[in-house]
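Please, why this fold?
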Amino acid sequence: MTNPDASGQLIFIISGPSGAGKSTLLKSLPKEVKDLEVVLPITSRPLRKGEVKGVDSLFVSMEEFERMIDAGELLEWSKVYGTNYYGTPWSSLRAIDLINDILIELDILGKDRFISHFPNAITIFIMPPSIEETIRRVRERHDVPENEIQDRVNTAIDQVMHATEYKYTIVNNDIEETLNRMKEIIQAERYLTRSR
């Protein structure tokens, strides 16, 4: 991949706990912000209801994911909740059109690994309004077994403690308001970078 610093591309990393609204933002922002493209992640988990292979994510077996780790094909990766792998293939970054800025969802560890390669990436943490709302949103998804909900809540509490490591933090009380704040951040960063 061409170095985004050299090509003029900006990289926007968004992180946040389960139920924060990241998936909605990833789907909505490229439709509303010109020249913005989402990096396609890879995972070993099964497809969720309504997901499309190669559109929402690249879905592979555990064995294939582990082969990609060994072959150095992943920029970053982690095993989440001790069950499934998630990561970013170098090939997904190379597939982004050079005229487009980059939007990527990463967990906290993934963000740190990504920034070791691209230190000028702009980091945004999406915060749920409360733990109670996080539980409600996770339950609403219907794809999370009841016995995993407490694990996700504990992870959410831990992740929120890292919000200060991000350049921006947005509390997602309302998805439309959060979407507008994201658009404002992207436009401001584009202006700051390209007006120098």
Observations:
- The beta strands are 11-15, 36-38, 42-43, 58-59, 74-80, 84-89, 101-105, 122-127, 168-171.
